[in-house]
Design goal:
mainly alpha; 2 domains; two-stranded antiparallel ribbon; 2 strands
C-alpha cells in the first residue's frame, strides 16, 4: 500500500502518514505518534485477495456498506456513478456484493462516501422524488438483507 492509500483508509493526512513511515537516520530520535493516529493506521483492514493472479481485485462486501449509507441518505446510483466515473450498473454490482472489485474503485467509493455523507442531495439539484425513491429502495434492500440468512 502506498502512503496515500493508507491515509485514505485511515482518514488521516498523507503528510502525517509519510512522516510516520519515515525511518529516522542514525543518531536521530524517532518521533512520537499520537495514540489516535496509531490506532487509525494500525486498524486498517487489509483487503483479502480473491486469487493470486489478480492482485488488484478485492471483495466488494466492504465497499457496499458506504454505498448503502449514501443510498439511505438519498443519493441515487446514477449520481454516485458520475462521482465515481463508472457505469451505474457497476454501482449496482458493488451494492449486490459481486466479487472482483478493483481496489482503486473501493478507495474511490470510500472517498466519495466521506465527501457526500454529510451533504443534502437536494442541495445538488437532485429532485426530491428521486431522493425519496432512493431512500425507499435502500430501506427495502436493508429489510431484504436482514431477512435473508447468511448475508
Amino acid at each position: 500500500m502506498s502512503a496515500q492509500d493508507i491515509a485514505d483508509r485511515a482518514g488521516l493526512s498523507v503528510t502525517l502518514v509519510r512522516r510516520t513511515l519515515r525511518i529516522p537516520t542514525p543518531g536521530q530520535t524517532p518521533r512520537d505518534i499520537a495514540r489516535a493516529s496509531a490506532d487509525a493506521i494500525l486498524g486498517i483492514p487489509l483487503p483479502h485477495r480473491r486469487n493470486s493472479g489478480s492482485p488488484s481485485l478485492t471483495d466488494s462486501t466492504e465497499a457496499s456498506r458506504p454505498l448503502a449509507d449514501l443510498a439511505r441518505a438519498g443519493w441515487p446510483a446514477t449520481t454516485l456513478a458520475l462521482g465515481l466515473d463508472v457505469n451505474p450498473r457497476t454501482v449496482a454490482d458493488v451494492c449486490d456484493k459481486h466479487p472482483g472489485l478493483h481496489l482503486d474503485l473501493a478507495l474511490r467509493i470510500r472517498r466519495l462516501h466521506r465527501h457526500l455523507i454529510g451533504l443534502d442531495p437536494a442541495s445538488y439539484s437532485i429532485h426530491p422524488t428521486d431522493i425519496a425513491r432512493t431512500r425507499a429502495a435502500a430501506a427495502r434492500r436493508t429489510a431484504a438483507t436482514a431477512a435473508t440468512p447468511g448475508r
